[in-house]
Amino acid sequence: MDQERISNESSAASIEFDNAPADVTSVGRAYHRKRACKILVDSPADFAPAVAERLGVRVIPFSYVTPEGEFLDDMWETRNPHDFYEFMRKNPDVRITTAAVTPGRYMEIFEEELADGLPILYLGFTGGLSSSIDSARQAAEAVIQAHPEAKIYVLDNLCPSLAAQLLAIEVVRQAAEGLTAEELYYWAKDARYFVQGYFTLDSLNWLSLGGRIPPTAANVGGKLDIKPELTYDRTGALSLCGMCRGRKKALRAIIQDFRENYGHDRALPIAIASADADKDADWLEAQIRREKDCEDVVIIRSSISPVIGSHVGPGMVAVAFWGGDRREKLSLTDRIARKVRGQ
Asked: What CATH number is given to the structural domain containing 269?
């Protein structure tokens, strides 16, 4: 399968959105319209490369380190997803590390983008998983101090991986409709809670290598064929939905959560991505096509980036979509707090 695909009615549609519904086609034309601001995103949004190009936004690459050295996440321009994940499969004890963008690098990028005088909106990788957003804020403050006339808006997207891709697509459309950088900032500040995502992993090994779960839990999970279903909470941090015995049950759990939370707006695309698990991604797409209002919706397909993939390992498969407000899914402690406050 290609590294990225935009499909309509289960067949590959033009990357130009020519065969997509009218509203999405208009978004395609809007990608290169003159905007009142610069829009910056980053590589952990797991963009389909052709979609990132059509968006006309700058993608800031994160970096990752393998035994071969340090690399920039260039959306698979210089590396092949299968080769990357096959290395992980053959070397399950080797930890691939990632690095946040430094404040100094953010300063360089912001100053470059301010050269033509337009304001900047940066949709940054969630602080629930990375410190990079703090570096971006520090850099923005420093640049504004040096250039008081500059306008830089930095927003934590609170929705990692391909969910951030969906947010960026709609931000671009809103910019094409005439929203200013400040208006886009406040629009996205609310809209980010309505992008939902669910995913499963083939193994708990890489979460263990990264220190996110104990090694004993990963070993037991492997022996029992336990597959987690995960999402992210309103802070953008990972949240466990449940544990399933076997891969198929985990995939069915994702479809069930999609069914319960999908917003049924055909003008908004759905995104599916995998870490070298195309067959399972195909299965997810086929099942989604059977759901109400999904027969002809645009589905964007991409590969999980090495930055995300290094933490979750090969076999991750995920779906993201516009749905209900994630803020309404309160944790037990939040519900107790509301009760105490009499809300």
From this structure: 3.30.1180.10
- Host domain of residue 300: 194-329
Whole-number Å distance between alpha carbons of 322 and 273? 16
Phi-psi label, residue 183: left if phi above 0, alpha if psi -120 to 50, beta otherwise: alpha
Tokens read off for 115? 């050269």
The 10s digit of each residue's pLDDT in 206-215 is: 877 766 656 6
Residue 325 to residue 56: CA distance in whole angstroms = 28
Is pLDDT of 11 > 50? Answer: no
- pTM value is 0.86
**Six-digit token pair at 188?**
């996205």
Residue 197 dihedral angles phi and psi, to the nearest 5°: -150, 145
Single-letter code of the amino acid located at 111: E
> In the chain, where does DSSP find H-type helix?
22-30, 49-55, 81-90, 103-113, 132-146, 162-176, 181-191, 205-209, 215-223, 247-261, 278-289, 306-312, 332-341
**Do 207 and 188 share a structural domain?**
no
